[in-house]
TrEMBL record:
Cross-referenced PANTHER family: CONSERVED EXPRESSED OXIDOREDUCTASE (EUROFUNG) (PTHR43708), OXIDOREDUCTASE (PTHR43708:SF8)
One MF term in the entry's GO annotations: nucleotide binding
Pfam families linked: GFO_IDH_MocA, GFO_IDH_MocA_C3
Origin organism lineage: Bacteria, Pseudomonadati, Pseudomonadota, Alphaproteobacteria, Rhodobacterales
Domain Gfo/Idh/MocA-like oxidoreductase N-terminal residue range list: 1-121
UniProt superkingdom: Bacteria
InterPro entries: Gfo/Idh/MocA-like_OxRdtase_N (IPR000683), Gfo/Idh/MocA_oxidoreduct (IPR051317), GFO_IDH_MocA-like_dom (IPR055170), NAD(P)-bd_dom_sf (IPR036291)
Protein name: 1,5-anhydro-D-fructose reductase (1,5-anhydro-D-mannitol-forming)
Domain GFO/IDH/MocA-like oxidoreductase: 130-250
Length: 333
């Protein structure tokens, strides 16, 4: 598969370029950057044959079958729609768009065009999360009563920029981290949040966008979810807890891009370590995406998954701004 990268991003250089190249026969043809000099330097640094500043040039390069979109959030929709119209398979960073209607349009267009459209929700590819999901689904902890996700971190200086200062580009902790937690909750519990309440604020880092948020989600099953996301907590640690009628799953250090962390089950018999695989998250994601493009199976997180994680995040933002409970709108999907 021949790829074009739309965005000379840090996430691509740190994880996705390697994961693409880990797939048999894969090749990255070019990288798109709005800054010609930056694009050339990026391509040279990562051994990519070409760099372009024009989207049509990126999509029109000979043999390109797929694109990976990791530009700022407000660019995802127009770039994805152009790629879909050109018949390319699309792997898009989260959130899929800044508006729900745009994300729904992207998924619908890809379905009609017959191309694979996926969301790069990396966490559901982690061995820890796969083991947790299996434990919940197999009834290890009985009926789920509640879940807590804590994903408050200190955003590194080099990742701040538009994320903490540009609402128009999709900045703020809600589109950056709450979408991940929404996908993680859906992945583990197998149901979509129905109603949310929330409070958000600027606790020292955000400049016109929220940098911290806490929310509570009501699930159709009656389970309740508590989520905490922040850019300003250097020592909080990350993890999740899922509490059921027969036991609890506790995970620490698993809300990350690496195959790390600790997971255990607490029940009437005591504490039991939950073993998990330590494969590369992105290698797995790109492997499933590539297979789906061949007509074999589905990506780890498809476009509908991306729409639904965005829908939850948007509901959290509306609830925080309005001070009222908000029903989650999934755009008909």
């Amino acid at each position: 598969m021949r790829w074009a990268l739309l965005g000379a991003s840090r996430i691509a250089s740190s994880y996705v370029i390697d994961a693409i190249r880990a797939q048999q026969g894969a090749e990255i043809v070019s990288v798109l950057s709005s800054d010609a000099g930056r694009g050339r330097a990026y391509a040279e640094r990562h051994g990519i044959a070409g760099s372009v500043t024009d989207l049509d040039a990126a999509l029109g390069a000979e043999g390109v079958e797929a694109v990976y979109i990791s530009t700022t959030n407000e660019k995802h929709h127009p770039q994805a729609m152009a790629a879909i119209a050109a018949g390319k398979h699309v792997l898009c960073e989260k959130p899929l768009a800044t508006e729900l209607s745009q994300a729904v349009e992207m998924v619908t267009a890809a379905r009609e065009a017959g191309v694979v459209f996926a969301t790069n929700h990396h966490l559901r590819n982690a061995g820890a999360h796969l083991a947790i999901r299996e434990a919940v689904a197999s009834g290890r902890i009985g009926r789920v009563l509640s879940m807590r996700v804590f994903h408050a971190v200190s955003l590194p200086e080099e990742l701040r920029g538009w994320r903490v200062a540009d609402a128009a580009a999709g900045g703020g902790v809600i589109p950056d981290i709450t979408v991940h937690d929404a996908d993680t909750v859906r992945f583990h519990l197998g149901e979509d949040p129905a109603t949310v309440v929330a409070r958000a604020g600027e606790s020292g880092l955000g400049q016109g966008v929220e940098d911290s948020v806490m929310s509570v989600w009501s699930m159709p099953s009656g389970a309740m979810v508590q989520a905490h996301e922040s850019f300003t907590h250097p020592h909080a640690g990350t993890g999740l807890e899922i509490h059921g009628t027969e036991g609890s799953i506790v995970a620490r250090g698993v809300m990350t891009q690496e195959a790390v962390g600790e997971v255990w089950i607490e029940d009437a018999e005591g504490r039991h370590a939950l073993k998990f695989e330590t494969h590369n998250l992105y290698h797995r994601a790109l492997g499933l995406f590539t297979a789906a493009a061949r007509g074999e199976g589905r990506p780890s997180a498809d476009g509908v998954d991306g729409v639904k994680s965005l829908a939850v995040a948007l509901a959290v933002r509306e609830a925080a701004r309005s001070g009222r409970a908000v029903d989650v709108d999934y755009g008909g999907l």
